[in-house]
Design goal:
The protein contains 1 helix and 5 strands, in the order αβββββ. The chain is about 10% helix and about 35% strand. The mean pLDDT is about 90. It is mainly beta and about 60 residues long. This is UPF0434 protein ABDJ85_08230. Belongs to the UPF0434 family.
Amino acid sequence: MDPRLIELLVCPLCKGPLELLRRDSVRELGCRADHLAFPIRDGIPLMLESEARAWDPEDTPASA
């Protein structure tokens, strides 16, 4: 995913910044404030609360 696009996207709930997360082959965008990870499917971030999973920022470091 293009880093410039990630900089433009914000969490749909709190409007805070998002981080690119990688676990195995799965990519997600994580919100530290809400402790949610939004999936990226076929290069498209699904920014719906119903699609998000709980995420503990302390357990999963963000990708560089």
